[in-house]
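Lecture 7 notes: from sequence to structure.

We start with a single chain of 390 residues. Read the sequence below before looking at the structure.
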Amino acid sequence: MNLFIGNICLRTLLLAAAIAITTGSQTLWAQDTIWYCGAATNVGGKSSVKATLRGNTLTIHGTGRMTDYTVTATPWYNSRNYIHNIVIYNYVTSIGDFAFYNLTEMTSIDIPYSLTSIGNSAFFKCARVTDINLPDKLVSIGSSAFMGCSGMTYVYIPDGVKEIPANAFSGCTGLTSIIIPNNLTAIGTNAFGGCKGLTSVFIPDNVTEIGMNAFGGCTGLTSINIPNNVTAINMSVFNNCSGLTEINIPNGVTTIKSMAFSGCTGLKSIAIPNGVKTIQMNTCYGCTGLESVIIPSSAASIESGAFYGCTGLTAVISRNPSPPQINHTVFFGTGNNVCLYVPDGSIAAYASANSWKDFNCVKSIGEYEDAGAVAGALRATPAQRLKENN
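Now the structure, written as tokens:
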């Protein structure tokens, strides 16, 4: 009902056991609103964990796991615009799926040391949160858990977490620093996609898999390592990382998938390790700053557009005595200043091979190794990698 006092309208809303009085844009709660949100498997079932809304603070208290929700199904979702703070008390062990989904006004959250898991999309689009302290007991982070938390600037992931799942921190554009534990073994698809504020990431040696587009669109990234235990560079994993100037690919890598480094306009050189048999489609598409590339002796084929539009390319070093299979799009748009360097005795084979014969300059690798043979093309990293692979 509406009550008029003078020319001010006061609207009373009955929600569960609470009364909210709205005056303009401010809502004052006359008494607490309480919901049961415990997992059915807890001792005491749903009543084992309770949520209480008092003013602008939502508290979660009790013992055990929170229940998992679907999108917009939390009982406090309709009050989301009034929730500014969340406090989770000790003895709560999990945050349920979608628990705090789209709480766009939330600016702070207190997480207890008892917490062991965070559900899928638990903090999806909580854009105003700047700091979330993850407790040491945490072992599991759900997919999309912090997706779209654009205000978050720093993340420390505890040692118990073994995997960063798909989309976990995707779209966290304000994120500038992340500490990854040594025990981590996998980074999922798009895990840090679009984290434009990240400048450097250290990935520990125990990581064996980096998922598709894991760092795609991290335009501020200037430094990142690929651990020695990684054997495959997945599709688009560093797509549009325009700030990267150098990437060291371990010798154990045998597969580099499509668009792995496409759009890395700051990349100056790349050495494909021996063991890679196929350089896949658009691997370095549009890497306009790329000056030199080393193709290993193991490469039997290079797929369409692999180095398409690499306008700064001046040196292509192919170590395979037999020309890998290519088509005209592989080096399309690289300009007329690029020189092809091949093993001694293979110049004639390359000069007559399909699409390789389009190079105006074909010389032996020995000439490339001579300092100053090609102005600006010889750089420390590819020269060292070339000698290591011999």
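Confidence is low (pLDDT under 50) at residues 1-30, 371-380, 382-390. Keep this in mind for problem set 3.
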